[in-house]
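Reposting from the mailing list since nobody answered there.

I have sequence plus structure tokens for a pair of proteins and want to know whether others read the tokens the same way I do. The first protein:
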Amino acid sequence: MGSFSSDIQVRFRDIDAMGHVNNAVYATYVEQARTEYFAEVLEEGLDAVPSVLASLELSYERPVLLEESVTVEITVPEMGRSSLPMKYEVLADGERAATAKSVQVFLDPETETPFPIPERFRERIAEFEGLEDAAGGQAH
């Protein structure tokens, strides 16, 4: 998995009383990687992408320790009309520590209601991920 990857620095403050990264911090790692994905693939900062996080699901497989290096890998398996599902693997020293799924929903900036993913974003994601475009052909 992982057409996009982001290296995350584990900070001392991420560690809980059990001596490993607190479960809630994984959501922050995924968020950081998603922000970097948008910046690289969409060539826009998250503040310029009219979307909100609609759902986030995390599954933990093993603890992450302070001294480990963390990488979050992201793939976009498909695109909906206004929704963008994303899948993540959180790797610690190259070993899977967690998986996650999220859905971003694009919103009309004025009405704040679901809005089709802008064509320029759809094209960039399709090309980066190797997805078929809306016309049914392979993205160029």
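The second protein, same order (residues first, tokens after):
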Amino acid sequence: MAGPHPLEEDETALDGRSAHFTVALAADGPCIAQARHKAATFLGHAQAEHDLPVSQRATDLTQLVVSELVTNARKYAPGPILMTLRVTGETVEVSVWDSDPVLPVARAADAGRVGQHGLEIVMAVAQSFEARREPVGKRISVGVALLDAPGLGSAAA
């Protein structure tokens, strides 16, 4: 029997300065940790193998965004989760698909609220944010800058 389990298949491609990676995650078990690990590995590969500039801050923020989006998909949608990472220019786009068509809504800031701050966190660190319905389910896409803003440090060598 050849090939990985269908929920573990991935695709990686590089075209000029655009790289992408897609993985399907089971909605149970350690999928959040797996998604974070795959995001860090993808960005490390983009930096080491393809000479794309990626700061440590970008890797950390990408893992944070992945963690929040996959956690929400796991919590609110039945079935598998599809995560795509795409580097285009100076941004990594994290895109997470799940089967629930209900679009997320950021709640008003409330320092006394315990939990449910994930979307607020994601929007605070994002260069871009989009939530859209798909023919089945929805897709949340978040852009994270690969390089630090001036004064925040430089890209890792």
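Reply #1 (J.P.):
I read it the same way you do. Confidence is low (pLDDT under 50) at residues 1-17, 151-157.
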